[in-house]
Amino acid sequence: MSMIMLYPAPLLTITLAATSERTSHPVEFLLEETPRLRWSAVDATVASASVTVSCAQAVSSLVVTGAVCADCAVTVGGGTPPGHAKLTTTDSAGNKSFWFTFTPVAGLTSIVVTFTRSGATTISAEQLLVGATGEYTGVQYPVAEGLVDSSVITTMSDGTMHVRKRDAARTFAATLRATRDVC
């Protein structure tokens, strides 16, 4: 069995620029480790919005979570990156997550992520991760799975609890069977 994992690039090496953003929901919200607020296009009249991601190191994956859009596409250097693959999932609230993998691009990389509007909704997203992927073989069973819930729970002054529901990330723990190199 093999497992693919994403190693996010350090946030200090990533810069973002958006073609459309609401001033109260800037594109920098996409880089928060614990999503609290969303990046959002100006309003529902924006048919498509792009986010340009600049990263100073080799990357081979880009992940967008909590997207409200019809579709999402990635271009590197003005075209489809070599070895391009895309995985899309939808949560119970209708938000989409996109995982793009491609052949690693070394050096300063500029990746354009284009979101297309769905109906009369405003384009938005919760989080964007970019980095290198690693494939690990020799994963032994059992693989443990857990959840990390990003929901915000606040106790109000009258003692009641207010819950702001957020996505839950799946976590995995496994044992790797490694072979040793013999000199």
Would you write up a description of this structure?
Helices cover 0% and strands 56% of the residues. The protein contains no helices and 15 strands. A 5-stranded antiparallel beta sheet has the order 1-11-5-8-7, with no helix packed on it. The chain has a 4-stranded antiparallel beta sheet with strand order 2-4-9-6, with no helix packed on it. The two termini are 27 Å apart. The relative contact order is 0.25.
Q: What low-confidence regions span 5 or more consecutive residues with pLDDT below 50?
A: none
Largest sheet: spatial strand order: 1-11-5-8-7
Describe the sheet with the most strands: 5 strands, antiparallel
Integer-rounded radius of gyration: 18 Å
Keywords:
single chain, 183 residues, globular
Put the structure in a nutshell.
By secondary structure, the protein is mostly beta strands. Helix content is 0%, strand content 56%. The protein is built from no helices and 15 strands.
